[in-house]
Design a protein that fits this description.
The strands form three sheets. The chain has a four-stranded antiparallel sheet with strand order 1-6-7-5. The two termini are about 30 Å apart. The longest helix is centred in the C-terminal third of the chain and has 22 residues. It is an alpha+beta fold. Bound molecules: zinc ion. The site of zinc ion (ZN) has 7 residues, from loops.
Length: about 270
């Protein structure tokens, strides 16, 4: 599933080909994403110049002169630029053709993604109640500490709650808790201020490193057969249940928290 670093890498990859370009037409081959693609998307967007490509949480905001296309990649979506005449393959549901002769092509085999239109995207119901971006100064350990007081829920689902901070998916929550030495099962309200400060720093460090690594794939967003290379970083805990801890050798345990697999080291994480 594309996580925040992949979405940010997508934004950086597609933006230079979109900004300043006028849309010549929009072709929708299959509207049935998580919500139906608006019937009038072509009418709304065609003829308009794209002025910016922004990101909020895992939503891409493709801003036209009037109105914004809100796109989410869902479980399996991707966006890339192709020659507008390139015949579509299966699952390539949308083309946004540009005057440059390129088209922004949306592919999504599982169709859990979204393409919506809004005149006021930050107040759209999907975006209005989101917490702060993890890589901004608004998000820090103090915020985690203050919002967690008297919360009995486990710390891992707490930091994955989009109202607390956006974009901390399962991989990054698992890895940041390992790096901060915090047991993912611990009650959010029982983690000290000092440990939350450490945890927020680790969340920022791990997300920034993944975005940095994604930078090497930016050229994959144009031409070729698509599938921009998602990037792996060295994982200490995620997906490593029953394997030895890379720090102390203890066998990692695997628990389910909020229906998500959560590996941790019983010795390194308290
Ligand atoms: Zn360990």
């Amino acid at each position: 599933m594309p996580e925040l670093p992949e979405v940010e890498t997508t934004r950086r990859g597609i933006a230079p080909h979109l900004v300043g370009q006028r849309v010549s037409r929009v072709i929708v081959r299959d509207r049935r994403l998580r919500w139906p693609i608006p019937e009038d998307l072509d009418v709304r967007l065609s003829g308009q110049k794209i002025v910016a490509v922004e990101r909020r949480a895992k939503y891409l905001l493709i801003q036209a002169e009037v109105g914004t296309l809100i796109s989410h990649l869902g479980m399996s979506g991707n966006l890339r630029l192709v020659d507008a005449g390139l015949p579509p393959l299966k699952h390539e549901h949308v083309d946004i053709e540009l005057e440059s002769g390129l088209a922004l092509r949306y592919t999504d085999p599982r169709r859990f993604g979204a393409m919506l239109w809004s005149l006021d995207p930050l107040n759209h119901e999907l975006l209005a109640r989101l917490g702060p971006e993890p890589l901004t100064d608004v998000f820090d350990g103090l915020r985690l500490f203050e919002l967690s007081r008297s919360r009995a829920m486990a710390v891992k689902p707490f930091i994955m709650d989009n109202a607390i901070v956006v974009g901390v998916g399962n991989i990054y929550a698992t890895e940041a808790l390992f790096a901060a030495g915090i047991d993912p099962r611990r009650a959010a309200g029982s983690v000290s201020k000092a440990r939350y400060i450490k945890l927020a720093i680790e969340i920022k460090r791990i997300l920034a490193a993944a975005i940095e690594r994604g930078g090497t794939t930016l050229r994959d967003f144009i031409g070729g057969d698509g599938q921009p290379g998602y990037f792996q970083q060295e994982l200490f805990a995620y997906g490593r249940g029953e394997q030895p801890c890379k720090v102390c050798g203890t066998t990692l345990r695997d628990v389910k928290l909020g229906q998500r697999a959560s590996a941790y080291c019983p010795k390194c994480q308290k």
